[in-house]
Specification:
Elements: E1 4-9, H1 17-26, E2 34-39, H2 63-74, E3 77-81, H3 91-103, H4 111-115, E4 119-126, H5 135-148, E5 151-159, H6 170-176
Parallel strand pairs: 1-2, 1-3, 3-4, 4-5
Helix pairs in contact: 1-6
Length: 193
């Protein structure tokens, strides 16, 4: 089976540090691995409206919602490329994950079963030397993967604030070389035995 990586760029800055780090990691993928890059700045999602319990719900008529649902379902590996904003995901990344709630009960889309066994990854940059400040972001992605029965490849962390700063983080660039080569275990909730 051909691996298909979907990179969702969820920052508000074009070519930001997080995207630069993700692209460095993606350069290491084998040539036969498909890569698709989608910027949520270019394809913004409308505010999420929770219609899970509405019997008359239908698939969205918004082309960006359709694009992201179809791209998500087609991916074997999903990479959330989100800068650390206030100790968690960007608003765009969180909004995208909110849509998963609707897709779980979307008629004709067996979202959870389709995503089960696939791999969720994260890439982020932060302006702190203490990586623990990214724990809420890592937890959100891990718990989302665990709920969906997905594998969790972890989060590639880099350091940078000003544009291009992450390219000076030699440790992050070294980790990027092998980040997607690791075997991703199934995600687990911390309280699972």
């Amino acid at each position: 089976m051909t691996r298909r990586f979907l990179f969702l760029i969820t920052g508000s800055r074009a070519d930001g540090n997080t995207e630069l780090l993700a692209r460095r990691a993606a350069e290491q993928l084998p040539a036969d691995v498909e890569q698709r890059w989608i910027s949520l700045a270019d394809h913004p999602l409308p505010d999420f409206e929770d219609l899970r319990h509405d019997p008359d719900r239908v698939r969205s008529a918004d082309p960006n919602v359709d694009l992201l649902l179809d791209a998500t379902l087609a991916a074997t590996d999903l990479v959330i490329v989100s800068p650390l904003y206030w100790y968690s995901l960007s608003a765009q990344a969180k909004r995208y994950l909110d849509y998963w709630s609707g897709w779980l009960r979307h008629p004709g889309v067996d979202f959870r079963a389709t995503m089960a066994g696939r791999t969720l990854w994260g890439v982020t940059t932060l302006a702190h030397r203490e990586t623990e400040v990214a724990d809420p972001l890592v937890g959100t992605l891990n718990h989302s993967a665990a709920y969906m029965g997905m594998r969790f490849g972890g989060v590639l962390l880099g350091n940078g604030s000003k544009p291009g700063d992450v390219l000076n983080d030699t440790e992050a660039l070294t980790r990027a070389k092998t980040f997607f080569a690791q075997e991703a275990p199934f995600a687990r909730f911390p309280y699972d035995n």
